[in-house]
Amino acid sequence: MIFKHFDLEEFRDLCFRLGVSYDNLRGENLSARIRELVLRMNREKRLNDLVNFCSHLRPNVMWPEIVLPTEQDFALLAKPNQGRSPRKLFLSYARQDIEFAERLATDLRKNGWDVWIAPESIQPGERWVEAINRGLTESGIFLLVLTPSAVNSSWVNSEANVAINLQHQGMMRFVPLRVEMSETPPLWQAYQWIPFQNDYQGGLEKLLRELDQHPTETHLVRSISEKKHRRQVQEPMQLSNLRRIPVGLWIVGIMIGMIIILWVMNGSFLDSIPLLSKEPQDTSKVRTKDNMEMTYVPAGSFLMGSLPEVDSGANEDEFPQHEVSQSGFWIDVTEVTNSMYAVCVEENVCTNSSFAADGRFNGSEHPVVGVSWDDANTYCQWVGGQLPTEAQWEYAARGNDGRLFPWGNKYPTCNKAQFLDCGGDTVGVGSLSPDGASPFGISDMAGNVWEWVADWHDSYPYETQNNPTGPESGSNKVLRGGSWSDFSRSLRVANRHADPLETRSDDLGFRCVTP
């Protein structure tokens, strides 16, 4: 799978070698563009070229087995949404279990099953949340890869809760697969699981028997059109029957409905709300207070922090790497500039920066520097927002693919970031985009100036976090992103620095967020 062996910059290089313009490939993420490239190579009968270049760049990988799809695979890639299918499986797994999940998906497809699995089932131009919702809408059976990592994954919990809800409505079958022993949520314990631990082949055979026992369970998988037809036929009879229901039963029914609503709002189904939440159609806007361009970062889950075996430049306070589920938010596309900050000073809300009169740092479109944490926080409140949390900042900078820098895994060059090797001081905000932009199109998340964030500095937790805000108190606030005066390793998206609140320096600025 190309997605596992190439980062964004390496995939761009692969496209260049194939004579394909990366920018002309449809899709908002790397997975979608890889899929589009494979489809294009198939249409042009150049799959062998793709295999040859992949083999040249990654000689230790068995590329023919990974890259060359079957005719059935291409049919699945191009298949439009056809409603819920009893022969389609939604495979839910934690990122740490991807090897098992991909092996299982391959074996199920060999046995005639249609499998929805991320990231390969995400269509060109499709957002992650939209793709998951589509997969849940199209699939008649939900397979849960049950491991400790899955239990601790907010994404897996959200998907499983939605699937159980759909099973209660008779629209989907919920089938857990126990791959590793783990404590499971009470809601999952009501279902008979299929054992895979220590015997993959035995588990696969049992799963196939279980799936084949119910090949046409129409009472479990109903199409929208069938339900609509049934409503139309039964509606006159139902209306006439409603008139004969006693008032007492109406009251009892209303009370039961209220109890169910309260249970859903306060219970385990709360985890599914981010998955189904509707993202804004327009993901760009301009804040009227200071004319700052903002972009929307959709809700998602990502691994925050570093793994020492992956990032040799990581510091101890970046460990342990842990999963974070983050709600959507708006964030400034650039750092706050001197001209923007000056308006806040003129309105007697903000304190003048320490370098307002310094010609090296007071360019109107350069980031404001020489502001304390309180100065930055005051400005963000003035424009109707707040400083980003550490989690918001890191998610906006790296997305959910684990990259080391906003643009990918390659170390900085001066066309992507302003840092020590480039000489000089700060540069105009946004001047190094799009080359140095994050997956969400956000500028200067690496270099130029350090950025204040909302959190107090402390060690990371081990457990999964939902919208974390950091410790309640501390002595130093966290800074992120590195600056013009730092070595390249400081520009890593997971890098953390901390200073007292009153610190003002020529390499320290900020940006704001709003919900």
Overall pLDDT confidence:
81
CATH homolog superfamily of the largest domain: paralog of FGE (formylglycine-generating enzyme)
Distance between the termini: 36 Å
What sort of overall outline do the alpha carbons produce when their principal axes are compared? globular
CATH fold-type name of the largest domain: paralog of FGE (formylglycine-generating enzyme)
What percentage of residues falls in helices of 4 or more residues? 25-40%
Can you tell me the CATH class of the largest domain?
A: Alpha Beta
Walk across the major sheet and give the strand order. 2-1-3-4-5
Number of strands: 16
Structural class: alpha/beta
What is the total domain count? 3
**CATH structural architecture of the largest domain:** Alpha-Beta Complex
Strand content: 5-15%
Q: What are the segments in which pLDDT stays under 50 over at least 5 consecutive residues?
A: 65-81, 215-252, 258-277
Protein model, in words:
A five-stranded parallel beta sheet has the order 2-1-3-4-5. Strands 6-7-10-16 form a four-stranded antiparallel beta sheet. Strands 14-13-11-15 form a four-stranded mixed beta sheet. The chain is globular. A hairpin with a 4-residue loop joins strand 6 and strand 7 (292-297). It has three domains: 2-212, Toll/interleukin-1 receptor homology (TIR) domain (Rossmann fold), CATH 3.40.50.10140; 230-275, no CATH class; 284-514, paralog of FGE (formylglycine-generating enzyme) (Alpha-Beta Complex). It has helices spanning 2-5, 8-17, 30-43, 47-57, 63-67, 71-78, 98-110, 128-138, 148-151, 154-168, 200-212, 224-242, 247-266, 273-276, 338-346, 373-382, 390-398, and strands at residues 85-92, 114-116, 139-146, 173-178, 194-195, 284-287, 292-297, 300-304, 322-326, 329-332, 450-456, 465-466, 477-480, 497-499, 508-509, 513-514. Helix content is 35%, strand content 14%. By secondary structure, it is α/β, with parallel strands linked by helices.
